[in-house]
Design a protein that fits this description.
- This protein has 225 residues and is an alpha/beta fold.
- The chain folds into 2 domains: 1-18 and 31-129, Rossmann fold, CATH 3.40.50.2300; 132-225, no CATH class.
- It has helices at residues 37-53, 68-80, 94-103, 115-129, 166-178, 183-198, 216-224, and strands spanning 5-8, 21-22, 29-30, 57-62, 88-93, 110-113, 136-140, 145-149.
- α1 packs across α2 (68-80) and α6 packs across α7.
- The protein is globular and about 50 Å long.
- The two termini are 26 Å apart.
- The model has no long low-confidence stretch (mean pLDDT 94).
- Homodimer.
- It comes from termite gut metagenome.
- This is 3-isopropylmalate dehydrogenase.
- Keywords: Amino-acid biosynthesis, Branched-chain amino acid biosynthesis, Leucine biosynthesis, Magnesium, Metal-binding, NAD, Oxidoreductase.
Length: 225
């Protein structure tokens, strides 16, 4: 099966670059993509550290054939790579990465990329699992980290007992492992989630045809037991 981690830079790029806006007549819109060497160095170094803890492979995803910011990303990654000789490093354009996630997801270990590319690729990754309700995520800060499902909130499901709780539970497992260093406890949670799926204790979004769909609370209670 596929087991990969996508490390996405969250504070730079098109989403936060300035200037940003529209012309007075509304006929022109513009966004600015900006990255500094320090920003890229910080996130690429973090990606190498995580790759060292996993299967020691890092894929640097960019669009260096057309974007100046991507060329900076690749340049910085190539400067850092010799500091981690144990890690196999590959460089890949984002369009190729999008294709490989669907065709060969197991070929990835750790990916690192800029904000917008990471936003798109992580949502695409949910197709591999069959539901966004299965994917945990973490926003890692120097002093504080936030762990949450990749899909964010789903207010339309409030009070209906239909939301898949597995991404939230797996986010808690990530918190135990990456914030508290409690790898054993994290693995126990993941094993319980795997067991629930194997036992067909599933919400409607991932249940097999003809099988009973369980509610949010029922799945959660089964995993706790």
């Amino acid at each position: 099966g596929a087991d990969f981690m996508c490390i996405r830079e969250l504070t730079g790029g098109l989403y936060f670059g300035r200037p940003q806006g529209r012309s007075e007549d509304g006929n022109t819109a513009y966004d600015t993509c900006v990255y500094t060497r320090n920003e890229v160095t910080r996130i690429v170094t973090l990606a190498y550290e995580y790759a060292m803890k996993r299967r020691k492979k890092l894929t640097v995803i960019d669009k260096a054939n057309v974007l100046a910011t991507s060329r900076l990303w690749r340049e910085v990654a190539k400067e850092i790579a010799p500091e981690y000789p144990e890690v196999e490093t590959e460089y890949m354009f984002v369009d190729n990465a999008a294709m490989r996630i669907i065709q060969l997801p197991a070929s990835f270990d750790v990916m690192v990329t800029e904000n917008m590319f990471g936003d798109i690729l992580t949502d695409e990754g949910s197709v591999v699992t069959g539901s966004m309700g299965l994917l945990p995520s973490a926003s890692i800060g120097i002093h504080t980290s936030v762990f949450e499902p990749i899909h964010g909130s789903w207010p339309q499901a409030t009070g209906k007992n239909i939301a898949n709780p597995l991404a939230t539970i797996l986010s808690a497992a990530m918190m135990f492992e990456y914030s508290f260093g409690m790898e054993r406890e994290a693995n126990l949670i993941r094993k319980a989630v795997d067991a629930s799926i194997s036992a067909n204790i599933r919400t409607q979004d991932i249940q097999l045809e003809g099988e009973k769909a369980y509610g949010t609370s029922e799945v959660g209670e089964w995993i706790v037991k």
